[in-house]
């Protein structure tokens, strides 16, 4: 789950873990994300207690598509570690900067190279929740990239504050595999 340190990612990861799935959350710094207390608001955080409560969930450093933004120490080889054998890749990378597009491109490219049959799931807000045309365009570009290149994909849209609805849509896709 790239971008899985957020609220939706944590909920989906714990649900999948409780069903017996092994889940790997890709994050920019696994050390900071697993710290007992949040160290910085600049990086995702799930916390030590979350990981202790969810033993089938692990964290993995990755570059998010931008080599200048990586701060973890073990980001090489994430493709083989995280994508090989994955049934699904759930892209929850947030933000609407160029970083979102780069992360999506990296996920699609490396998934095609390592595991082209994995289900690619993207989650984005509905257009009404995106105030700027630029944000809408970036979301549409990522969805097009996934649809045009991935054998199995689901591009999901939800209202921005509908956490339960977002998780349910993701789980519906996973349950259909």
From TrEMBL:
Taxonomically, the superkingdom here is Eukaryota
| Name assigned to this protein | NAD(P)-binding domain-containing protein
Q: Provide the species name.
A: Minutocellus polymorphus
Its lineage opens with:
Eukaryota, Sar, Stramenopiles, Ochrophyta, Bacillariophyta
């Amino acid at each position: 789950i790239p971008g899985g340190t957020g609220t939706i990612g944590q909920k989906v990861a714990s649900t999948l873990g409780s069903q017996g799935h092994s889940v790997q959350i890709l994050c920019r710094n696994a050390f900071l994300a697993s710290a007992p207390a949040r160290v910085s608001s600049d990086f995702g955080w799930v916390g030590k207690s979350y990981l202790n409560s969810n033993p089938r969930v692990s964290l993995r450093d990755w570059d998010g598509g931008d080599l200048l933004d990586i701060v973890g120490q073990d980001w090489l080889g994430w493709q083989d570690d995280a994508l090989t054998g994955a049934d699904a890749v759930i892209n929850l990378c947030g933000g609407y900067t160029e970083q979102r597009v780069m992360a999506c491109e990296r996920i699609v490219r490396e998934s095609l190279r390592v595991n082209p049959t994995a289900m690619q799931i993207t989650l984005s807000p509905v257009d009404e929740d995106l105030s700027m045309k630029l944000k809408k365009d970036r979301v549409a570009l990522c969805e097009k990239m996934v649809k045009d290149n991935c054998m199995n994909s689901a591009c999901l849209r939800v209202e921005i504050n509908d956490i339960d609805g977002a998780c349910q849509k993701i789980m519906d896709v996973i349950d259909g595999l």
